Amino acid sequence: MTTKPSTDLETFPNPNPDRDFVIRMRIPEFTCLCPKTGQPDFATLYLEYIPESLCVELKSLKLYIWAFRDQGAFHEAVTNKILDDLVTLMQPRFARLTADFGVRGGIFTNVVAEHRAASWKPAEPVILPPGEWIKQ
């Protein structure tokens, strides 16, 4: 096998640093090991972020996520570690990682971790009435 798991995350320049825009990723094949039993835990990760000057490169993210496959980690700890690593790498304006873990012992677990840059202020939401833009 030529491709191996890696903890080396890579970035590329934000193509529109003058604008807030949201990047959303769904990562459905996350696995790690239960630190108590050694059994595999499966999760879908949902990453949302508003970049500042850097974006995460997808292949490096895939290999980084793959690196957790043989690591024992509690759901809460692994979710926060992944978000911390991404924030350290990119310094985004905003980032949210939601980890939706499969059932374990009859319990589903969702862990949500967020980061907001101290200097970032979100824009006021624009709420349009439904159907107003459609003219008959």
From TrEMBL:
<dbReference type="GO" id="GO:0033739">
    <property type="term" value="F:preQ1 synthase activity"/>
</dbReference>
<dbReference type="InterPro" id="IPR043133">
    <property type="entry name" value="GTP-CH-I_C/QueF"/>
</dbReference>
<keyword id="KW-0963">Cytoplasm</keyword>
<dbReference type="InterPro" id="IPR050084">
    <property type="entry name" value="NADPH_dep_7-cyano-7-deazaG_red"/>
</dbReference>
<keyword id="KW-0521">NADP</keyword>
<dbReference type="GO" id="GO:0008616">
    <property type="term" value="P:tRNA queuosine(34) biosynthetic process"/>
</dbReference>
<dbReference type="InterPro" id="IPR029500">
    <property type="entry name" value="QueF"/>
</dbReference>
<feature type="active site" description="Thioimide intermediate">
    <location>
        <position position="34"/>
    </location>
</feature>
<feature type="binding site">
    <location>
        <begin position="56"/>
        <end position="58"/>
    </location>
    <ligand>
        <name>substrate</name>
    </ligand>
</feature>
<dbReference type="GO" id="GO:0016787">
    <property type="term" value="F:hydrolase activity"/>
</dbReference>
<keyword id="KW-0560">Oxidoreductase</keyword>
<protein>
    <recommendedName>
        <fullName>NADPH-dependent 7-cyano-7-deazaguanine reductase</fullName>
        <ecNumber>1.7.1.13</ecNumber>
    </recommendedName>
</protein>
<keyword id="KW-0671">Queuosine biosynthesis</keyword>
<keyword id="KW-0378">Hydrolase</keyword>
<comment type="function">
    <text>Catalyzes the NADPH-dependent reduction of 7-cyano-7-deazaguanine (preQ0) to 7-aminomethyl-7-deazaguanine (preQ1).</text>
</comment>
<feature type="active site" description="Proton donor">
    <location>
        <position position="41"/>
    </location>
</feature>
<dbReference type="InterPro" id="IPR016856">
    <property type="entry name" value="QueF_type1"/>
</dbReference>
<dbReference type="Pfam" id="PF14489">
    <property type="entry name" value="QueF"/>
</dbReference>
<feature type="binding site">
    <location>
        <begin position="75"/>
        <end position="76"/>
    </location>
    <ligand>
        <name>substrate</name>
    </ligand>
</feature>
<comment type="pathway">
    <text>tRNA modification; tRNA-queuosine biosynthesis.</text>
</comment>
<dbReference type="GO" id="GO:0005737">
    <property type="term" value="C:cytoplasm"/>
</dbReference>
<comment type="similarity">
    <text>Belongs to the GTP cyclohydrolase I family. QueF type 1 subfamily.</text>
</comment>
